[in-house]
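RETRY 2/3 - previous attempt timed out on the joint model. Re-submitting the same 224-residue input unchanged.
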Amino acid sequence: EDQVTQSPEALRLQEGESSSLNCSYTVSGLRGLFWYRQDPGKGPEFLFTLYSAGEEKEKERLKATLTKKESFLHITAPKPEDSATYLCAVRAGNNRKLIWGLGTSLAVNP
Amino acid sequence: EPEVTQTPSHQVTQMGQEVILRCVPISNHLYFYWYRQILGQKVEFLVSFYNNEISEKSEIFDDQFSVERPDGSNFTLKIRSTKLEDSAMYFCASSVGQGLETQYFGPGTRLLVL
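RETRY 2/3 succeeded.
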């Protein structure tokens, strides 16, 4: 069964303290891995799409990487406004549906 | 920047009533989706829609659910007879398709069934 697991469930950082979030997946025929940010009561906001192992994408303080089994979202020198839930989702096989992880709730203290 | 919009933002209904959730996808997108998120749980896929027909649906999307694209801009999700367990955030999403697979999400409709 296709599955996505994110860790840790929650992470608290001090402003400027870099860290990484993990998304491990078990799917048949990965067609894309997606990172989204979700603020409370809001819809998922697109961050990155990764298609193949070795691929990296970067945007401001965020960098996403992909291997054959997992993806990491690296946050460099985070700011309080980076506080949110970060969701990972995958698309597999011929399906268009996204399969989601539970997310990592990130809190960045000033 | 184009975005997906959804109305209403909140809906409260009585069990057994019908609700219609509305979405306006991004204008040049070809694929449309509905997902839901029960509080504290994972986002769950409901249905995808392409070329005026359902292309994929989950086990959740039973006969109580239907989708429609009544005109060139709106995409709706109807729940015929709501149940308590239908209470959730419902998200509409759209994607260009044609190899560009990123799905862009709307702000959601919070549905509460009493």
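Chain A touches chain B through 23 residues (CB under 8 Å). Closing ticket.
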